Amino acid sequence: MKKTTLLYSICLLLFTTTITAQKKSNNSIKELIESYKKDIRGPYYRIKWFCKDGSVRDAKDPCPDSIGGGIQHASFKQSALDLRKTNHLFFGEILASVNTTDFLDEKNNYSRLKQYQIGQYLASVDDGWVLRKGQFYRGAIQSEDEETWGKNFFETVLKDDSFLNKNYYLIRQALKDIPHNGDSNIAQSMRIESKILAEEIPDFMDIRIKIHGNPQKSDIYLVQNYVKKNASNISTKQKKAFDKLIATMNEFYAPLNYNTIAKELSKIKKENTVFDFVKSFIEEDKTNFTAKEYVLKITDVLDLLRYNIALFESSKDRLKLLDLTNQLEKILLIETQNWNPETLEETILKTQTLTCASYATGLVEAWEFDIIKPTFSYTLKNDETTLGELNSLVANARRIVEWSTSLVKANYEENVNEYAAFESLAYGFIDDRIRNSITLNLGETVSKLNNFAAKVSEVNNNVMSISNQGAIRGLNPGYAFGKLIVVSGNPDDVEVNTNNIYIFQKPPSDLKPVAGIMTVSEGNLVSHVQLLARNLGIPNAALSSENLNSLEEFNNQNVFYAVSNKGNVILKLENDMTNEERELFDKKERTNNMITVPTDKLKLDVSKIINMRDVKATDSGILCGPKAANLGELKNLFPSKVVEGIIIPFGIFKTHMNKEMPGKNMSYWEFLNATFEKSKELKNENTSSDEIETFLISSLKELHTAILNINLDDSFTSDLKESFKNVLGDEIGNVPVFLRSDTNMEDLKEFTGAGLNLTLFNILEEEKITQGIKQVWASAYTERSFKWRQKYLLNPENVYPSILIIPSVDVDYSGVMITKGINEGSENDLTVAFSRGAGGAVDGQSAETRLITAEGSFLLSPARQPDYIRLPATGSTKKYYTTFNRPILNNKNINDIRELASEIREKIGGTSTEEPHAYDVEFGFKDDKLWLFQIRPFVENKQAKSSDYLNSIAPNVDINTTIKLTEKI
């Protein structure tokens, strides 16, 4: 009996441990947060003494001096400790209790440090958040211990030159949040306190918007006058909140005590020209400084310190100087708002200065700034400029705004999205960081320049009469009508509707077809989503976060949306549409765009696996899809750049589809055709299109599930094993491979189909390969794949997937090339997007995008994807993190890309009997060697580009128009 009880106890313990180790759901975390908010101790358990020798004592039993003493603070509830193990989430962090390395959390992309910052933000916007009552738990956190820990933390991490160079932005932000010098994030407090008041008192919203968007010292008087005017309607609690806000604003706008700063700098013994320059500015008499002089001089100091911080070898000196940069940045933000240029020349100067300040405050990397800096230097040489030069300057300045905002997102988005899944307030964190940066005013200044250029050239956006429309620019031409849906949070949780127009912070990589899209970041120009949008004539534009916020009031309203081929954008309510715009949506015009995929040439009797060397491009749509056929052709044309491969042709798929489908008394293929016959009957019965689509998706889902469980023929699996051995050089299970879906409905002359079906990465085990084959076949019948085909093809039921199997190449970086300029450049240029690791750029990562010409390489956007995957020889994928302080592509790579494009045009384009067209090429680099993975025609929607309406809204622009720099702006 005792043995049984003991065994039961052991099993119970093991079971409990397993349960504890399981990741907690978002709902469970929400419940836990709510319980902490109501608890007078929050996530804390009780006060303890933590001794230097590692022992822990009760609150009334201090650590004796004989063992080195110790510190006192709260311990954590078991639920909070469990959350750390299961979800790597750290609520109510007590810094004094943490090891420096653990808190930095480098292996998780500094997640714990960033979570501390997000936690501080949530506490400020939500009355303490998990510490709503626990913030008053006496003794839980000792501020002097937190500051001592913070000082030691920074002095430790700042010893590392590499860390500082790679994470300059992150470390300066951390200095604002981690106590170490009696400091606090006053700017954030000011915005949050005004936000909370505006939520309680709607009439205060206009002043809150002013404080958030265009903060100036005069805002103090706005608040004071509001309180005075509305005293009878303000409660005692609200009056205290207003008093607190006014005190915070006075503290924020108080002048720096330069004498105190000078004393701190006197402790730095390093003598060099940089330090002399900094000291000179600190000691300079600033009594008569204008806002412009402040901005110019502070930017110079910040720029010099960013570039030369490593000259100061002492981490204590570095800490003092970095603290100084944050102090100076606060004054910079204030004076930038006070500098109001009147002429074009001075507005350009301000743009140039704030661009430099973006680099100086860490929002742009050094190599990025070095590349774009020359484009700002030529405009002011004479007393006039041209419209073309001005447009170029505006475009480049706007890039800096985008690069800056995307760097903030790249640093924090992963953690913010994780938190937002159980705490929606976390979404405000990134916006708060952007508002507390020079990006806000740079964006406003660039918008003024753009509006001036638009006035000269008569190119204007017409977007709901919102402000700062100069930040909006078209990417893909087209027009649409539908319900406007504004998605300010994580787009992955949004179920999109084909008929709607969506505004995203960032589009999901597996976006289903929609009527139109706008995104805060243009993202990756050559991602599958962008290529599909371009192919189908779906209007697509980029806008700013401020624009997105302004458009939220029109959410769920019917709108007309158009993007011209010159990039100007129209977005108006349904009632404001012209008769010409209403006529664009005649249903007859739409059916003329639909195409039928020919099936008469299919060779479905080929039931053996094919060596990729034995096919060529003309076999596409006959034996296999275009990926395999084209890669077979490429293997012969570029033998050293293409791996070996085997192909599972259409015939093998069709053979298996002819098997009886379990429980249906018909074959899989008959079930598929019966489904589409039924949909035709429903259409003839005037059933609504939504009901027909629901029926089709439900039936295809059933088919998808059935194919996943289909039994593979023994003859096929034997053939597969032999092909691995004979073609790929080893037994199946020893060669990690890619399984790429390759249908007859891809890369058509009028339809690309890019990225609609499944690719499986780096599969090693035999069982996973055979199951993967079923998964790839079944992927042709997913909702997303069907909807994109349904939008353009008259016979989407006649999809035949083949499968291309190629050995994995563990590339250092990979991407896509379009052999023409997209949006910028000419037909002879190259648009290239690359990300680190495998699968780069195609899935919508924030890739390094370049326009490569015969003579140069112009950076359109740097990479902002913090994570990437590599392909280990053991199969599957492994995730890594990166920083952005170095470019992805080097000069040798760029020359190799030019050479590849030239060969493609000569060897493939030169043999074509059709008119010349561009190509979409996927490739990668391993140890600087180029590997070619895919080539397909680049398909654009010619109707969208040539539409009479789109041409009518695109003005003719003379870029040689001269403009005096003295003109008023």
Automatic annotation (TrEMBL):
UniProt entry tagged with the keyword tRNA processing: no
Gene Ontology terms, MF aspect: ATP binding; kinase activity
Keyword check for Signal: yes
Leader sequence residues: 1-21
Keywords: Pyruvate, Signal
Taxonomic source organism: Polaribacter aestuariivivens
Protein name according to UniProt: Phosphoenolpyruvate synthase
Species classification: Bacteria, Pseudomonadati, Bacteroidota, Flavobacteriia, Flavobacteriales
Top-level taxon of origin: Bacteria
